[in-house]
Amino acid sequence: MALLPILQWPEAGLSTPCAVVAEGEDLDTLIADMFQTMYAAPGRGLAAPQVGVLKRLFVMDATWKDAADKSSGTPLVMINPEILGFGADLGSGDEGCLSIPGVLASVLRPSSVVLRWQDEARNWQSGTFDGFAARCIQHEYDHLDGLVTFDRLTPEARREAEETYSRYQESPA
User: Fold this and answer.
1) What range defines the domain where residue 137 resides?
2) For 112-122, what is each residue's pLDDT tens digit?
3) 23, 82, 95, 140: which is the annotated catalytic residue?
């Protein structure tokens, strides 16, 4: 396993929609490296385009930071995910992004999401997620469509967030 470099906005690959992962593509090393990179960052989700791979794949573990034993989270691999629907309730929540360090922005999203995806063994799964897991999925899914947090903000909020990011880049904490 290896730590992968995480691309930083405005890297062009972060604005590029990703290709479907073809049947039979070997992803074992990439998935292991993505989990290692995500945990080391430390993040709760990481999409393939954030590490320079323009494929529809992300990994996440929405609960590992909350667990008393940091090794007991709920890691998920989502290959070729498809959003089937959203809950009617919307909620704002602060989101950070490993590709936009130093910025925490309030993003309005549906509170639940229904999803279909292939797991690491390429078996199709489906499920409904709510709370932080739903937010994490929608955030990572955005990356697969070439969207970043800035793209979900009002023009004024985006300007402020970009200014915060610019200051962070000049002198990282």
Assistant:
1) 12-170
2) 999 999 999 99
3) 140
* Tens digit of each residue's pLDDT (9 = 90 or more) over 8-41: 999 999 999 999 999 999 999 999 999 999 999 9
Q: Is residue 1 part of a domain?
A: no
pTM: 0.93
Alpha-carbon distance of 155 to 164, in angstroms, equals 14
Q: Does a structural domain hold residue 158?
A: yes
Alpha helices in the chain (DSSP H): 28-40, 131-144, 155-170
Q: Tell whether 4 is covered by a domain.
A: no
134: closest CA among 106, 113, 104?
113
Task: Compute CA 138 distance to the chain's CA centroid, rounded to the nearest angstrom.
Answer: 7
The tens digit of pLDDT for each residue in 60-115 reads 998 877 665 555 578 999 999 999 999 999 999 999 999 999 999 999 999 999 99
**What burial class does residue 82 get, using C-beta atoms within 10 Å of its C-beta: 0-12 exposed, 13-18 middle, 19+ buried?**
middle
Q: What is the CATH number of the domain that holds 49?
A: 3.90.45.10
Query: Is residue 2 assigned to a domain?
Result: no
95 an active-site residue?
no
How many other CB atoms are there within 10 angstroms of residue 108's CB atom? 11
User: Considering its fold, how many domains does the chain have in total?
Assistant: 1
